[in-house]
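Progress note, sequence design subtask.
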């Protein structure tokens, strides 16, 4: 049973990767707006129904990774909150996110540069990216406010913005210059450490 489940999961991962690769290739060749879901499915040799079993639509292909892990982050924050400072809790969330990135490194490094080029070149995707980032950070702020009621909401929002802004800035630069995984993770950790140093100086732990 375990082997069968493993085979099914590997097949699903391959299909998702094939769809992602086909979509990004078509987006670059003929434009994001001009590409249809039917064309993506045909290029991946699957049905449109299969496409929608993996993605909600074209935008989800581009931003699938961006929204992942929010529930996990909320669980981690709540579990750590009773005995962990706000800043250290944020660090734990970041480290958990980086560990997840390590697990899916092949896919991140295969598709990350193409996704970045696409988002930077399509205004609608730039706006969608900012909306998704804002929603994710606002949701994390809400959980932290719940867990640290003695902290001002503005301080918490600033802390989240600083830490995840540093993470994103370092990630984008690493993708653009073609860093390998170890170099990229080291750059992200340096950026986050710098943000945390500033937070400790301003807000304490």
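Output:
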């Amino acid at each position: 049973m375990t082997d069968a489940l493993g085979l099914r999961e590997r097949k699903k991962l391959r299909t998702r990767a094939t769809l992602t690769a086909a979509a990004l290739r078509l987006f670059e060749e003929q434009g994001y707006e001009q590409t249809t879901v039917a064309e993506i499915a045909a290029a991946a040799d699957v049905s449109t129904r299969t496409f929608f079993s993996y993605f909600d639509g074209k935008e989800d292909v581009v931003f699938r990774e961006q929204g992942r892990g929010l529930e996990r982050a909320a669980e981690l924050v709540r579990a750590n909150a009773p005995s962990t400072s706000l800043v250290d809790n944020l660090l734990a969330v970041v480290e958990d996110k980086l560990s997840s990135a390590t697990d899916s490194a092949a896919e991140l490094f295969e598709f990350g540069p193409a996704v970045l080029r696409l988002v930077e070149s399509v205004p609608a995707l730039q706006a969608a990216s900012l909306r998704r980032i804002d929603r994710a950070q606002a949701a994390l702020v809400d959980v932290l406010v719940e867990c640290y009621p003695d902290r001002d909401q503005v301080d918490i929002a600033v802390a989240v913005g600083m830490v995840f802004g540093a993470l994103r800035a370092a990630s984008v630069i690493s993708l653009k210059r073609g860093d390998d995984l170890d170099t990229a993770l080291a750059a992200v950790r340096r950026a986050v450490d710098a943000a945390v140093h500033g937070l400790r100086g301003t807000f304490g732990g």
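Residues 22 and 117 are 16 Å apart (CA to CA). Work on this subtask will continue into the next period as scheduled.
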